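Chain A, query sequence.
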Amino acid sequence: MTTTKTKYDKLFAVYEEYTRAIAGVNDPMAAMLCASWEATKRTYEQALASGGKTSQLAAGMEQGLRELPMALRAEGGKHAEILGILHRAIATHLPEFFKHDAALLAAIVERSKIRNAREYYLVRHRIDALEGDAGALAERDLLYQLIDRFES
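Chain A, predicted structure.
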């Protein structure tokens, strides 16, 4: 019998694999992220023990996956290596994350407007993924225009 994993289970597996892999990266940000995840796991255990819902925790975890690339970019260091590890962990445990995001991103571009913070972070995440890709300049420029309009 196969057990269906919840979104929380999948996100938890992403963070577990991700932090296990970046523990070997000699970078202060990697060390901070590993320590942060250990503390977060304890907080989640307490929340669940006191009646918290996995769906609420999953929403926060998902937002964290979107915000992490921006934090890494701001910090510098070995962010490209750390970000690559994150993308592999997501692809392994939550591949639908990328598919859903691609569909939503296409809708944002089609309407030429970011409507809320969730969409903003999705567009920022895509921009971060395109950094350094000379073949994606047009897409990146379009996304920056959407960000500029949203922020103004």
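The chain is about 80% helix and 0% strand. Residues 96-152 form one domain.
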